[in-house]
Design brief:
This protein is an alpha+beta fold and 191 residues long. 34% of the residues lie in helices and 18% in strands. The strands form two sheets. A six-stranded antiparallel β-sheet has the order 3-8-4-5-6-7, covered by helices on one side. Strands 1-2 form a two-stranded antiparallel sheet. Helix 3 runs antiparallel to helix 4.
Length: 191
């Protein structure tokens, strides 16, 4: 009996921490406070620089890419606002709030009203990008990243990063711009 107990304790002492740390390291933690630019982990910078075809040094906002990493692959769910499912405007609402410390309206139709319009070539990380799907003006939204890439909640593939000029997206591209912070609203607005 004591031999079995000793093996159990050895197993618990070595194996359990290994399992817990391997699960924990899968998703990056968001460091710093909303609105703060925090240097990304090297692995995170490598991963997203490869996805978007930029230099690792171009990945500067660790909070942004940690947020994306946490939400990547989350399924689409209309009206969703958690890891069980999120819609496009919900993802943008959460990203702007948790990464940049900016609270914008929850609905796409209201999010369009808080941007200062920009030309595509002038877009910066964190700007909003709108699309007209199903013949409806400003029915979809994503967040511009870098080098022509956008993160959004796709109704078919969940939270993904795509090229803005991807033919399946670009033909619906309608407007983009940066958030005008003096027009932001409180958390309950726009619901």
């Amino acid at each position: 009996m004591t031999k079995h107990r000793s093996l159990f304790y050895l197993f618990a002492l070595f194996f359990v921490p290994l399992v817990l740390t391997s699960c924990h390291s899968r998703k990056a933690a968001m460091k710093g406070q909303p609105g703060e630019i925090v240097k990304p982990q090297i692995e995170m910078a490598d991963k997203y620089s490869q996805i978007m075809g930029v230099d690792r040094s171009d990945i500067e906002n660790g909070r942004l890419y940690a947020f994306i990493d946490q939400w990547m692959g989350t399924p689409y769910k209309f009206g969703g606002l958690d890891k069980d499912g999120v819609d496009c405007s919900g993802l943008v609402f959460l990203l702007e709030q948790q990464v940049y410390g900016i609270t914008i309206p929850r609905m796409t139709s209201k999010q369009i009203t808080v941007i200062r319009r920009k030309y595509e070539e002038d877009l910066k990380e964190g700007d909003l990008v709108f699309f007209d799907f199903d013949g409806k003006q400003f029915s979809h939204v994503g967040v511009y990243l870098q080098n022509g890439y956008v993160v959004h909640a796709s109704s078919r593939r969940g939270v993904i990063i795509v090229r803005l000029r991807d033919p399946s997206m670009y033909k619906y591209f309608s407007r983009a711009g940066s958030i005008v912070t003096d027009t932001t609203t409180d958390v309950s607005a726009g619901k």
